[in-house]
């Protein structure tokens, strides 16, 4: 991964354990990109869209969002909507990572522009595998041109 | 008004009374008319007797005056008059006798009259015979004797007595006839009045019952309306509670899963660390395993198997709550084909278990295909699963239609379910009997939830060691629980 404009991974996940496991597996997959973690939706949005929620702060930056749907202060769907409707962030890939495998929920996320939807399985092997798959995903990320 | 009149049978009783009054009037009228007829006959008889006695007296007088004329003038014309009259006397007496034969008072009088008449006739004949024989003086002597005059007087007296007797009878009979007629009139009038009163009373009562019936109907409508409102209220409460439970199950299963992911994840991490550490430890002597490592592995095994079990349970709850949230797609389904299809898919299972399934003709039902499939595949699966060892399984699926419902029976000859377990088997994670078959205790709980959501119920009859019968009762036409409606309106909002 020698990218001149390296992708920053923004992880919004309230469960510390999950966050840690995700990070471990990302690292295990050989991904060395910076990971910025937020335990709630507000902190995540502050980082992604800036305090003014305009998204200008991240104009031209390569971001990958790892998003949990069950957050204490808002739902991940709200964050997904805001990111995908923001002109500066809409191209940033969003990976929804959640325990919900409800088909309606998954469908909704894809409709809102989610790029990958990963169900956190209790089976750790599958979980680790799914996270490691993200490593492949990194290689196809189109880093937006700096304007 | 007395109690019986206020009952609905009141008018009927009144009509009955009217009928009785009519019949009584008829009977009395017939009796009275006959009495009056009898009186009429009696009057006729009286008049006849009087007439006859007068005729008898007249005939005697005519015979006597003919005889006297003959004696005075010897004119044969007088003799003819005499002869015509004298021959009629005895027949007329006989006629009179017949007329009074039934009368205890008059018959003896007529009997007493008989000898006088005979003597008189004999006297008249004797005089005429003497005169014809030329013995006119002897004839006149007979006439001069008081014998003939006395006889006539006796006859007149007796005849007068008979006539006056008859006269008295006539007056009596007339009075009687008048009484009878008055009675007849009275009875008819009284009957008419009674019937009119009864009719009026009946109309009054019928009116009153009609009013009461209308009031009762109105009250019933009112009650029904209130009942419907109540039912709607309850149903709304119930569907709210049901939704609450569904949400609860959903949230709980999700929230339980989150920590479980951690437990599993970090357990695996621990395992990885253990492997690293084991590699770093000095290798144990050949063929031996470090006891602490062994204990570590045992602990890990228990943790992992417990996690898997817990994951299974959480998934079951999740599926159940999902089944409870799924939107149904009601359509007319040929149950027979559907169940036969299910049995076809179980062919291998049936062969292994030495069982067969008989599907009798089943009706069409408007309901959800997927739910019906899940219900019956669970029931059939259970029936095949819990057979009696050594007894070939026979499972029969049959149905009866009752009103707006269809009762579908799944009957087996398997091991049966003990009385104490019959409610338990429908509860989540509960199972009955020897635990020698794999299963999580979800099937029947799922079945019951589905059947209820389809607007039906499920019943279980069973005898331990003989077999079980599950009866699924479904509405023939789509009629789900109110839950569906409230939920879809919520979604729409």
What is the overall silhouette of chain B? rod-shaped
How many structural domains are formed by the residues of chain A?
Answer: 1
β-strand amount of chain A: 15-25%
**Strand-and-helix sequence of chain B, N→C?**
HHHHHHHEHHEEHEEHEEH
Anisotropy-based shape of chain A = globular
Largest sheet of chain B: 5 strands, mixed
Strand order of the largest sheet of chain A: 2-1-3-4-5
- CATH fold label of chain A: Rossmann fold
Mean pLDDT of chain B: 84
The strand count of chain A comes to: 5
Q: What CATH architecture of chain A do you see? A: 3-Layer(aba) Sandwich
Can you tell me the CATH class of chain A?
Alpha Beta
**Order of secondary-structure elements of chain A:** EHEHEHEHEH
Low-confidence stretches of chain A: none
Structural domain count of chain B: 3
Pfam family, one (chain B): CHASE3
Protein name (chain B): histidine kinase
GO biological process, one term (chain B): osmosensory signaling via phosphorelay pathway
Catalytic activity (chain B): ATP + protein L-histidine = ADP + protein N-phospho-L-histidine
Structural summary, described in words:
The complex is a heterodimer of chains A (147) and B (493). Helices cover 38% and strands 16% of the residues of chain A. With 147 residues, chain A is of the alpha/beta class. Chain A has one domain (8-138): 3-Layer(aba) Sandwich (Rossmann fold). In chain A, α1 (16-28) links the parallel β1 and β2 (35-38). In chain A, α1 packs across α5. Chain A is globular. The two termini of chain A are 23 Å apart. The model of chain A has no long low-confidence stretch (mean pLDDT 82). With 493 residues, chain B is an alpha+beta fold. Chain B folds into 3 domains: 3-210; 237-320; 328-492, 2-Layer Sandwich (Heat Shock Protein 90). In chain B, 71% of the residues lie in helices and 10% in strands. Chain B contains 12 helices and 7 strands. Chain B has helices at 3-6, 10-73, 76-99, 106-132, 136-144, 147-280, 291-323, 335-345, 347-353, 369-385, 443-453, 482-492, and strands spanning 330-334, 355-359, 364-368, 393-402, 405-412, 457-463, 467-475. In chain B, the strands form 2 sheets. A 5-stranded mixed beta sheet of chain B has the order 2-4-5-7-6. A two-stranded antiparallel sheet of chain B has the order 1-3. In chain B, β4 (393-402) and β5 form a beta hairpin. The longest helix of chain B has 134 residues, at 147-280. The radius of gyration of chain B is 61 Å and the shape is rod-shaped. Residues 482-493 of chain B have low confidence and may be disordered. At the A-B interface, α1 and α5 of A face α6 and α7 of B.
